[in-house]
Design a protein that fits this description.
The complex is a heterodimer of chains A (about 325) and B (about 325).
Chain A lengths: L17 E4 L5 E5 L10 H40 L6 E5 L5 E5 L1 H11 L2 E6 L1 E2 L2 E2 L2 E5 L2 E11 L8 E10 L10 H21 L4 E2 H6 L8 E2 L6 H9 L4 H15 L4 H12 L1 E2 L5 E2 L10 H12 L6 H6 L1
Parallel strand pairs in A: 3-12
Antiparallel strand pairs in A: 1-2, 3-4, 4-11, 5-9, 6-7, 8-9, 9-10, 13-14
Chain B lengths: L2 H20 L10 E2 L7 H9 L8 H27 L5 E3 L3 E6 L5 E7 L1 E5 L2 E8 L10 H4 L6 H14 L3 E6 L6 E6 L2 H21 L12 H6 L11 E2 L10 H12 L1 H17 L5 E4 L2 E4 L12 H6 L19
Parallel strand pairs in B: 1-4, 6-7
Antiparallel strand pairs in B: 2-5, 3-4, 5-6, 7-8, 10-11
Classes of the chains: A alpha+beta (about 325), B alpha+beta (about 325).
């Protein structure tokens, strides 16, 4: 028995409480319950209202979340669609998976969609951007830093202390002057920041194709042969590719599948001398550009003292 | 020696000769502003002095310098002959004379080379000769400020006029035929521009001498985009806009679809309408195939306001016009 003059009754259903939805989506109690709903305290009604408000907030949050997800997905697709095949470099890994990395030219196009800001470039010496110069192992390297962020209305991400170092002797350093180095570091910091914030450092080739990009026209990076081999392929005569593949297989057959021996044999039979007497070597069959080059190599292979036709027949 | 080799060597010989004549492979560091290098960005003016290596002269640029010098020599020679037969006669004095302005502290602030002076018995004028594509469409003083390539030219002449206390300046601009002459009289507007240039130059020299801090970045990102120092000695923040918005308003989406669907028809209508209006201008009543054409004149009010009056009321709103493009990208 309690002291309170109340009867224990089940809590009233929501519909028995008259409510009004106010502007911010929350629910407020509009009409107090009538006196014949006995045994229900004001505390019970407040708990019901609180639960309704929480459910409403969750519903709104779910809508916001869906819209935000849709925005991020559309932003990514629209950003990739705004690029051209030449804005990407494709890389192939050992498993054969091909991914694309955005170049500087594409980074500027993509950054517009994400509302990216890149700022606080440093080091600053006397008010001037001046990459940090360091010497190690006889080589000079230059390092710069920056911060970056995306627009709050897109992803609202921020990264700090993006760092980039370039060292003497690397490729693509212009004329090697300090002015060129500053330009390269500045530009590369911007590209790197954009790739990190947008996740465009490694985009599967399938995604690029889905966005309408012809990946055959993309630049090729590692996994597609050396740069000289790629150039050779692009200027090779018709049919050279097939003949080169056959020759490669013939070499492997002659060395019983030993890849290292095959590489050495290939270099030996495919080398040539220029008019100054200097010997040049091809590192792989992809470097052939004309059928007569393959014929010459086949002839040398046939005459090879160890792996030639005569030696094969004796074996 | 093949024909191809000779052709390539001919081009190399031409470029080597131009480079040696111009001898401007790398401008040196200095502690004064060139009269021809007024910049709206004070920071850029400082860096022009302290990091001139950021601005490189390509072969094409050296060619333009050479062509400009040749034109200036031709104009000068012609002016000398013309002055002898003019009424009244005038003389041409000077010619690439070094010109200096010092500030109140006695420091060398602005240095330049005056193309020359026209001297009448009781009057004189400083003249500057300019060639190149950039002055092709310059007809009035205001036109100089319309282009980023010509705005420093006006200030160069004005600073010469200010320093020499000369009221009259003449810009001689290259044209396919006779050159175009623009006369400039030093009024309040022009004096204000010249004094602003001088003030900026003084501030820039203060920074170079270590008496002031490096100025802040310019607030117009377009200035930064064009600047030679960007990404070299100067690294302003880079903004790519506010980013993509997602608009889910079904009404607007439907309007965009309708717009896309009728775009070709709208273009056809517009072209036909324009062609008919041009062809039938002045025709008040006519039968045209299955159509009747009715036309009438209506008044159009034009205000012919002198440039100097218009200039006083000029204001440029950087967000005065809205340009929009809608492209279908699919889902």
């Amino acid at each position: 028995m309690t002291d309170q003059k109340t009867i224990q009754v089940p809590k009233p259903a929501v519909s028995q409480i008259e409510t009004r939805v106010v502007e911010n989506g929350e629910v407020a109690l509009a009409v107090a319950p009538s006196s014949d709903v006995a045994g229900v305290t004001p505390q019970d009604y407040r708990q019901e209202i609180a639960m309704i408000n929480q459910l409403e907030r969750l519903r709104l949050a779910s809508e916001v979340f869906s819209l935000r997800t849709e925005l991020i997905e559309k932003c990514r697709r629209d950003a990739i669609k705004s690029t051209d095949p030449e804005d990407w470099v494709l890389f192939r890994d050992r498993d054969g998976s091909v991914t694309g990395r955005l170049c500087a030219s594409g980074a500027d196009k993509v950054a517009v969609y994400y509302g990216i800001s890149v700022y606080n470039f440093r080091p600053i010496v006397g008010g001037v951007f001046s990459p940090l110069e360091e010497k190690a192992d006889g080589k000079t390297s230059f390092t710069g830093w920056c911060d970056a962020e995306t627009s709050p209305q897109v992803t609202g991400q921020r990264i700090e202390n993006v760092r980039l170092t370039r060292t003497e002797g690397e490729s693509f350093l212009g004329r090697g002057t300090f002015a060129d180095m500053k330009t390269i570091i500045h530009r590369s910091l911007i590209t790197k920041s954009i790739c990190i914030l947008t996740g465009m450092s490694r985009v599967p080739e399938s995604v690029l194709k889905d966005c309408g990009l012809n990946t055959d026209k993309c630049r090729k990076g590692s996994g597609f042969g050396t740069s000289s081999e790629r150039v050779a392929k692009s200027v090779a005569e018709e049919g050279v590719q097939e003949e080169a593949d056959k020759f490669r297989k013939e070499i492997l057959k002659r060395v019983s599948g030993d890849k290292a021996a095959g590489r050495d044999l290939f270099r030996e039979v495919s080398c040539w001398e220029d008019k100054d007497g200097k010997t040049h070597y091809r590192e792989s069959a992809d470097a052939f550009t004309a059928t007569w080059q393959i014929r010459n190599a086949q002839k040398k292979l046939a005459e090879h003292p160890v792996f030639g036709d005569a030696a094969q027949n004796e074996g | 020696m093949t024909y191809t080799t000779l052709s390539e060597r001919l081009k190399d010989a031409w470029e080597d000769c131009t480079a040696s004549e111009e001898k401007r492979a790398t401008p040196g560091k200095r502690e004064y502003v060139y009269a021809s290098q007024w910049r709206p960005c004070l920071r850029a003016m400082v860096l022009d002095m302290t990091h001139p290596e950021d601005s490189e002269y390509s072969h094409d640029t050296l060619e333009r310098f050479r062509a400009g010098k040749d034109f200036e020599r031709t104009v000068r020679a012609h002016l000398i002959r013309a002055g002898q037969h003019a009424q009244p006669c005038f003389d041409v004095e000077g010619g690439q004379e070094r010109f200096e302005i010092r500030d109140r502290k006695g420091r060398l602030t602005i240095v330049g080379k005056v193309d020359g002076k026209l001297v009448w018995p009781s009057w004189r004028a400083i003249f500057e000769v300019k060639g190149g594509e950039s002055v092709k469409n310059v007809d009035t003083i205001d036109d100089f400020n319309r282009s980023v390539w010509t705005r420093s030219m006006l200030r160069q002449l004005l600073i010469y006029m200010l320093a020499d206390n000369c009221e009259h300046g003449v810009m001689i601009l290259r044209r396919p035929g006779a050159p175009h002459f623009i006369h400039i009289i030093m009024g309040d507007y022009e004096l204000n521009m010249a004094e602003q240039f001088l003030s900026s130059a003084e501030k820039a020299v203060d920074v170079v001498m270590g008496e002031a801090d490096m100025p802040e970045f310019h607030d117009d990102p377009e200035e930064c985009r064009r600047c030679d120092h960007r990404g070299k000695s100067c690294a302003p923040p880079i903004e790519y806009g506010s980013g993509l918005q997602l608009i889910t308003d079904e009404n607007l989406i439907e309007l965009a679809r309708v717009r896309q669907e009728h775009e070709d028809a709208a273009k056809l209508f517009s072209n036909a309408d324009k062609a008919l209006k041009n062809a039938l201008r002045g025709v008040e009543l006519a039968h045209l195939g299955d159509f009747v054409v009715e036309g009438k004149w209506s008044p159009n009010t034009v205000y012919k306001i002198p440039d100097e009056i218009k200039r006083q009321y000029k204001s440029v709103d950087p967000q005065g016009r809205w340009l929009m493009r809608i492209t279908e990208v699919g889902k």
